[in-house]
Amino acid sequence: YHLFIQAACSKALYSVCFSLGVTTVQGILSSVYLDDQVLHGWKMIPIPFHNLNQKPNISFEMQHTKKRSEKLELTNDHVSKKEPALFAGEFSINSVEEIKDTYLSFSGWGKGVAFVNNFNIGRYWPSVGPQCNLYVPAPLLKPGQNSVVIFELDSPHIDLLLEAVDQEDFTCGSKHDQL
């Protein structure tokens, strides 16, 4: 099993195309504003989404628990809690009979987007809620290796734990927002 953490880069990627009378420049070319105020002290971080199943290089373990859930424990000493990061891992399904609809629980995570086998299963933001997990339909899963990629924008789970559970959970967010 593997986990991949994308290191943040400090250089912006851009390209300049030259042609007769045509110049195309990509990227941010002037100051960035928010509410008519120039923003200072921010970073642009390139995140490569072109190959979400790229071979990861840091390991994680899948732990089986007695109840019908699986915990993916991710470990790394170099996790930055202050910048967006990509976390990717693989888990194995032994047979077609084991493939079932499931949910990935993001309880304890910040906010971001999750992908299973290169398919965007949705955005998560458990502190706002109401959903704590995202639905993963059985047809997205396959026998053998399956990939999970998490684009975390805020802060990862303190233990870097991702759990697969068998039912939805709408108990996240502040209590006064829940009806």
UniProtKB/TrEMBL annotation:
Gene3D superfamilies: Galactose-binding domain-like (2.60.120.260). One of its GO terms (biological process) is carbohydrate metabolic process. The keyword Lyase does not apply. The keyword Phosphoprotein does not apply. Residues 84-146 form the Beta-galactosidase galactose-binding domain. The chain crosses the membrane at residues 12-34. GO terms for molecular function: hydrolase activity, hydrolyzing O-glycosyl compounds. InterPro entries: BetaGal_gal-bd (IPR048913), Galactose-bd-like_sf (IPR008979), Glycoside_Hdrlase_35 (IPR001944). Keywords: Glycosidase, Hydrolase, Membrane, Transmembrane, Transmembrane helix. This is Beta-galactosidase 17. It comes from Noccaea caerulescens (Alpine penny-cress).
